[in-house]
């Protein structure tokens, strides 16, 4: 029966972002982005974002894994694994070094031309995130980043340059990486530092609104340029359970999730729900929303929903019980039923099935799992491939649950890309030792190493998963 198999065109692949792998931070006319001023942190110690590039500070993204110069070798390895797609982002400052120029930087466009051609040579579909935590620093300092309505036009200039140039090479796009992170970690998301005062929520939801409008207008623009394009939104899916079966805990959990669904509701349905409006009113949030914005939101609903999913959280209504464990951009309470990663993220494969069901029940729009993976310490023994059985275990359990969602529950999932398919710089800590890859990169947290690539045990494993279209896990 065909329902027992994944569709033949299922998009297996891997994902990275430009800033975490390209390096070449000042090559080819590139300007400085927020990612370029992020110093190295470590587990439990957030990265410091400096105002300028400072002498003597180590910035891991400056060279990253030098994908900019080594993309051919890396894509050949992805092709060897059988990737059907490869997700990356555009480093905005390669195309518009400051962000407010009128004309794009040809050298930047030419790089992505070469990159996409290389993918297509192997039949790998590029999947492109337009903005993945790499806002031009100039836009942050001169205009206040997304707190300013002008950003919509700067972003659309970028989109116009990209869609016009690449619409025949790139079919799958996403407008913003983890758009809901703007309210969770605005500094990482877009260089915004709202402080902890009363106006914090006002500032951040305003920034989110401008991104919603920008995203909607980008969807419309992309479809006008080429109706074949599939343009999605992308959110961090923070699956959360109520700590107990008390109605209070469940209500609190529901309200937590509401704040994330606000992002998908606007982008999928094209409007703010009554609940979102009540939330704003209750919290004294008054947004600059024009009639034209409301029309633009309606006219630019997305074609699919991209999600990142790494872990799940637990929520309690009791304030003292809050924040006991750190997670991906969010904190929660320890879940005694789950194991944790080396970085304390609570591993929950079944949660992926629940997440996919929740989203599909709500929207009936295709879902693309564009990030899932395990950040772990790999031990390198000279002359031997890394035995990353823990990564294989993590990935196979998650893929098995995704299959249940598709084959048993009927969720429409269009593809799955392993995050950091090649080791790269961690977004939250700037570490190299937090490795996600199926390809090892010889580089450490001090920026030392040959940058040589090596297949890990998971490389062969994933190759087999793709070859059998997910039958062999
Ligand atoms: C997601 C981001 O939140 O998580 C990625 O989209 C990031 O950019 C990934 O790398 C994993 O997080 P980290 O902090 O382990 O790199």
From TrEMBL:
Example GO molecular function: 6-phospho-beta-glucosidase activity
Active-site residues, Swiss-Prot/TrEMBL: 371
Record keyword Disulfide bond present: no
Keyword entries, A-Z: Glycosidase, Hydrolase
Record-linked InterPro entries: GH, GH_1_N_CS, Glyco_hydro_1, Glyco_hydro_1_AS
Family recorded in the similarity comment: Belongs to the glycosyl hydrolase 1 family.
Protein name: 6-phospho-beta-glucosidase
């Amino acid at each position: 029966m065909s329902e027992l198999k994944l569709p033949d065109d299922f998009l297996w692949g891997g994902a990275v972002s430009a800033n975490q792998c390209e390096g070449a931070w000042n090559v080819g006319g590139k300007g400085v982005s927020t990612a370029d001023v992020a110093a190295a942190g470590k587990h439990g110690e957030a990265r410091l974002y400096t105002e300028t590039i400072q002498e003597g500070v180590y910035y891991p993204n400056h060279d990253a894994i030098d994908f900019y110069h080594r993309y051919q070798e890396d894509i050949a390895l992805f092709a060897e694994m059988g990737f059907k797609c490869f997700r990356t982002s555009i480093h905005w400052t390669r195309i518009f070094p400051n962000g407010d120029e009128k004309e794009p930087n040809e050298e930047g466009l030419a790089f992505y031309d070469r990159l996409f051609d290389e993918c297509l040579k192997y039949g790998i579909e590029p999947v492109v995130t337009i903005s993945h935590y790499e806002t031009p620093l100039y836009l942050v300092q001169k205009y206040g980043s997304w707190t300013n309505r002008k950003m919509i036009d700067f972003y659309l200039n970028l989109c116009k340059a990209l869609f016009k140039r690449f619409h025949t090479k790139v079919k799958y796009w996403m407008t913003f990486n983890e758009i809901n992170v703007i309210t969770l970690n605005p500094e990482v998301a877009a260089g915004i530092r709202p402080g902890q005062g009363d106006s914090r929520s006002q500032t951040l939801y305003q920034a989110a609104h401008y991104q919603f409008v920008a995203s909607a207008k980008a969807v419309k623009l992309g479809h006008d340029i080429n109706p074949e394009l599939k343009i999605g939104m992308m959110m961090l899916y923070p699956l959360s359970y109520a700590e107990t079966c008390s109605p209070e805990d469940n209500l609190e959990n529901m309200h937590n999730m509401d704040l994330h669904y606000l992002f998908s509701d606007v982008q999928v349905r094209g409007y703010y729900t009554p609940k979102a409006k009540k939330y704003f009113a209750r919290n004294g949030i008054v947004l600059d929303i024009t009639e034209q914005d409301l029309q633009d939101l309606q006219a630019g609903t997305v074609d699919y929903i991209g999600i990142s999913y790494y872990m799940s959280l637990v929520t309690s209504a009791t304030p003292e019980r809050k924040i006991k464990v750190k997670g991906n951009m969010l904190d929660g309470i320890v879940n005694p039923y789950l194991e944790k990663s080396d970085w304390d993220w609570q591993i929950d494969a079944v949660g992926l099935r629940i997440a996919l069901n929740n989203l599909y029940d709500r929207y009936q729009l295709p879902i693309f799992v564009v990030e899932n993976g395990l950040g772990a310490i790999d031990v390198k023994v000279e002359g031997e491939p890394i035995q990353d059985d823990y990564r294989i275990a993590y990935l196979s359990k998650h893929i098995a649950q995704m299959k249940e969602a598709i084959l048993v529950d009927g969720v429409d999932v269009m593809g799955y890309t392993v995050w950091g398919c090649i080791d790269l710089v961690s977004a939250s800590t700037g570490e190299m030792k937090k490795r996600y890859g199926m390809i090892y990169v010889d580089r450490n947290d001090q920026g030392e190493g040959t940058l040589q690539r090596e297949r890990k045990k998971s490389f062969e494993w994933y190759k087999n998963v793709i070859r059998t279209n997910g039958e062999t896990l």
